[in-house]
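7-carboxy-7-deazaguanine synthase
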Amino acid sequence: MSEMAQLRITEIFYSLQGESSTVGFPTVFVRLTGCPLRCGYCDTAYAFKGGVWQDLQAVMDQVAAYQPQYVTVTGGEPLAQESCLELLTALCDEGYKVSLETSGAIAISPVDPRVMNVMDIKTPGSGEVEKNLWSNIAQLKSTDQVKFVICDESDYRWSCEQLDKWNLSKRCEVLFSPALGLQDATQLAEWILRDRLQVRFQIQLHKYLWGDVSGK
């Protein structure tokens, strides 16, 4: 672990995982500052700027204080900081079950293979569909997950097309999530059942428990 490595941190907190295959598990979240995307439904715009520069060891010490089993590195877009890669490896070396929440706009190939990538594919409704780095799909492991945030029926149809085009359900687990306040969750669930999709429907558990607040 490099003594010189530093990361710009928005917050480090302990909560329940609200999404992905580890939903419901107590998890430490390390939220890095900064993101090159501006999705219309973004719920963490407070992480676009600010933050505090911290040494990698200081971040590791804060994580260890919670004695977690699961750690999620998120943002913003965590891979926008080069030192994120070193953080991910250091967390894996400590024996944590580590996941990375990433936009899909930056290459995941350098990420430690022990990390579970939870990678967005940006829908047209996000306003950032052109930022998708399609070469990332070939880098996905069977233990990774791909997430589509669905804003409307047009997004849903587009996402179904990507499922088929890239054979995503054969590569890894696929998540369909309704954009809060834009797409009715029940309606999305009905579409998935109607079309017999091989995807995991998910809602953001933490939003239903605590609302749209930071640190949860």
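thats it. The domain at 6-210 is CATH 3.20.20.70 (TIM Barrel). Residues 169 and 198 are 6 Å apart (CA to CA). bye
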